[in-house]
Amino acid sequence: MQLSSIPKIKHTNSNNFFLLAGPCAIEGEDMALRIAEKVLKITDALEIPYIFKGSFKKANRSRIDSFTGIGDENALKILRKVSETFDIPTVTDIHEVSDAAKAAEYVDVLQIPAFLVRQTDLVVAAAETGKVVNLKKGQFMSPESMQHAVKKVHDSGNQNAWITDRGTMFGYQDMIVDFRGIPTMRQYAPTILDVTHSLQQPNQSSGVTGGRPDMIETIARAGIVNNVDGLFIETHFDPSNAKSDGANMLHLDHLERLLTNLVKIRKTVNQL
């Protein structure tokens, strides 16, 4: 799949990695526009192809009182406004078969969450919209097993599938990125490294997911060195007060320095 086939994507000839970045969840219009504007300014300067990410709802929650969203239609309309305001593509995750067609009216890429990537009906529904389908590798799955998820998309008549690695569960409250999986998964589809979710520490006794944001640059650098096609980074201007996944998000103020360093590494890798 050519990245340039995605509507509104920029800098496709820069030989850079592409970036999916934004808040974990759409909390409101102002915050989404603020984050998108800042990330776009940085990625334009560095010539990084950019797709704005935001979940229109959060179905996988630790507790029943956890934030799940501001309403499906409201959040999807905000995603559309981000796209129209800044002329950029957008991605959101879906959780039910009925979400596929609904979300496809508003965004350019449909993402299948890691816990749901084996759900055939959901993957097929996403594929049948004709949108790019971003398949998150389950924390419980091997890199080799992702070829079957990709094949479901292809067998549904859609050749536009990506794989995103978000770590593998080793123990009850931590995940590890096995970089041996990147070249394996790249045989099946363009492969993205989800830097921030790989640093989650789920299943905390409080019911609130923890994380290691201090390790974001370490994981991202290793991904670039190992030729990932893209990076996935959740970012927020106030992570401590974000309504979802604040513990492992990158502060928006730190994004420019991180991406600048990663572009330098990518240029070096490209010369090898």
Quick rundown:
The protein has helices at about 30-45, 70-85, 95-105, 120-130, 145-155, 180-185, 215-225, 255-270; strands at about 20, 50-55, 90-95, 110, 130-135, 160-165, 170, 175, 190-195, 200, 210, 230-235, 250.
Characteristics:
272 residues, alpha/beta, TIM Barrel, 13 strands, globular, KDO8P_synthase, EC 2.5.1.55, transferase
Describe the structure.
Helix 7 runs parallel beside helix 8. The chain has 8 helices and 13 strands. It has 272 residues and is an alpha/beta fold. The strands form 3 sheets. Strands 1-2-3-4-5-6-9-12 form an 8-stranded parallel beta barrel, surrounded by 6 helices. A two-stranded antiparallel ribbon has the order 7-8. A two-stranded antiparallel ribbon has the order 10-11. The longest helix is centred in the first third of the chain and has 18 residues. The chain has one domain: TIM Barrel (Alpha-Beta Barrel), CATH 3.20.20. The chain is 34% helix and 18% strand. The protein is globular. It catalyses: D-arabinose 5-phosphate + phosphoenolpyruvate + H2O = 3-deoxy-alpha-D-manno-2-octulosonate-8-phosphate + phosphate. Pathway: Carbohydrate biosynthesis; 3-deoxy-D-manno-octulosonate biosynthesis; 3-deoxy-D-manno-octulosonate from D-ribulose 5-phosphate: step 2/3; Bacterial outer membrane biogenesis; lipopolysaccharide biosynthesis. Its EC number is 2.5.1.55. One of its GO terms (cellular component) is cytoplasm.
